[in-house]
Design a protein that fits this description.
With 284 residues, the protein is of the alpha+beta class. 43% of the residues lie in helices and 25% in strands. It contains seven helices and twelve strands. The strands form three sheets. It has a five-stranded antiparallel beta sheet with strand order 2-1-3-4-5. Strands 7-8-6-11-12 form a five-stranded mixed beta sheet. α4 crosses α5 (170-187) and α5 crosses α6.
Length: 284
């Protein structure tokens, strides 16, 4: 909803009146501007003579999380009520009694989503943690078996990562892992599953992809980008390389663990062959 750029009267239940020019284009902007000018944070506002509605009154009730009594609450939303008659004090109290439980429900839902997110993601790289990654890998394995689609896994490890930590410090090592995870994400499709498998090792499950395509296209693309573009850190640019092992699901495998084990064996061969390379599973 828009407002005319001319003075309007805002009224709070406490009886405090503020007059200023509304340059806002939405109720949310209006409420933010009011809180900037009025630190006391009234529970509800009246905006008389709304510019576009032609109604008698518009009440904006804020949804606040936190302690109102200490003026530490955070506005997480607003509820806009329109009427063809002026609002009364009783209307304001009723709106307060309805909106504050709603604010608590919204905040509880947000906190639940945050807990769920933290339970599934690695805190450093924001990739899936190992537990959730394995759950998703199991789903992809089941789908591949059911529909007969190819499924490929990649294991990726930072070469000489201990040297990076010893030379530059663990905080730089953390920055390297975050940058590596971001580069992997940038090369993957939305259906691919990326997780931090442990330490400096990452695992990727690629549904609908054959081993050869994964190795020659995706894995080599990631390896080359990491090797060609030093990672910027607090200690300057750090040159990093990675080794990658690739394996494809076959009839003998009994779960995603077997697939990842074969990819890990190929990763070990890449390390033994001199690092900074992609090796395909020889069994396939």
């Amino acid at each position: 909803m828009g407002f005319e750029r001319r003075p309007r009267h805002l009224w709070s239940p406490a009886g405090r009146t503020i007059v200023f020019v509304l340059a806002c284009t939405s109720i949310a902007c209006l409420l933010s501007e009011f809180y900037r000018l009025c630190p006391m944070r009234a529970f509800a506002l009246f905006v008389f003579l709304p510019a576009l509605t032609g109604l008698a009154a518009l009440m904006v009730a804020d949804l606040i999380c936190g302690d109102r009594r200490l003026w530490r609450g955070v506005v997480i939303g607003v509820v806009c009520l329109e009427s063809n008659r002026p609002y009364t004090e009783a209307d304001v109290r009723l709106a307060q009694s309805l909106t504050q439980p709603a604010a608590m429900a919204v905040e509880n839902a947000r906190l639940f989503d945050e807990v769920q997110r933290l339970a599934t993601l690695d805190g450093l790289t924001s990739t899936y943690n190992r537990r959730h990654f394995m759950d998703l890998a199991q789903l992809q394995y089941d789908n591949a078996r059911r529909f007969g689609h190819p499924l490929t896994a990649m294991m990726l490890d930072v070469d000489h990562f201990k040297r990076i930590n010893d030379r530059h410090g663990h905080h730089v090592g953390d920055q390297v892992l975050r940058a590596l995870a971001e580069r992997c994400r940038g090369a993957l499709r939305s259906v691919d599953v990326l997780g931090r498998y442990g330490g400096e090792e990452f695992a990727i499950v690629l549904p609908g992809t054959t081993q050869h395509n994964a190795a020659t296209v995706l894995a080599e693309r990631i390896r080359k980008r990491v090797a060609d573009e030093p990672i910027k850190t607090d200690d300057g640019a750090v040159k990093v390389t990675v080794s990658v092992g690739v394996a494809e699901l076959d009839a003998e495998m009994r779960g995603p663990e077997d697939l990842l084990k074969r990819a890990d064996a190929a990763l070990y061969e890449a390390k033994q062959a001199g690092r900074n390379r992609v090796v395909e599973d020889a069994v396939a």
